[in-house]
Amino acid sequence: MEKRFENDIKLATMLQQAVISKDIHNKTISISGYYVPAHDIGGDMYVWHRIDEHRYGILLLDVMGHGVSAALISMSIWSLTNGIIARFIHPHDVIKELNNHIFSLFNDNLDTIRFVSAIYLLVDTDHKKVDYCNAGNPAFLVLRGNRINEIESTCSPLGIHLDIEPRVHSIPYDNRTKFLLYTDGLLGVTGYKEYPESIKYIKELFLKNKDLEIQQWIGNLVKTAPQPKEQDDISVVNISF
Predict the structure, then answer these.
(1) Residue 78: pLDDT band by 50, 70, 90 thresholds?
(2) CATH number listed for the domain at residues 2-240
(3) Pick from 7, 136, 183, 206: CA 20 to 30 A from residue 236's CA?
(4) How far apart are CA 80 and CA 204, in angstroms?
């Protein structure tokens, strides 16, 4: 029985790794991701979808908890993401539909519902703007030249309020602009206990390594950082133009 369980976990790990979006690099946009689960499988997920010639939908989410249960919820959401992004497109509508799906998963057991933090970006490379909604995730970072802005949450996490009303904002960009999205597991490997120190350290690394692939500098951070008492999944998405 134990051997069968181990084989099932290995298969689940392979499947989860297989569905992670592959990097995109073209003349208008570059999107790359980095993912390390706390255990063999986890509840973090990122996905991007090219909607049309000029628009991309990019989603990062973090299911509360770790391991198999979080991974099952994450994979359930993943199975619908491309369809949701293609159909609803706009951040307000995509976030609302994702929230509806989470409530439908726990329709008969709302007391066991898992909260999900998420960031969804709609990138328009024709008009050079990003419409976004940050639903309870740590602030993502926008780098322009040598200046970094923190983009805070604009609504509550998914799975809390059925009638969620996501607030959407827009960010213009140019070819010097870079975005860094991450789940809270990244803050846990900085070596700092408090958020202000952790995010300051991430910002310093982002600026210092802005011309490197995130697999390189985030990978080095994760490998060399002191292990936190409670490990968490880590997902990072880098977008440049």
Answers:
(1) confident
(2) 3.60.40.10
(3) 7
(4) 36
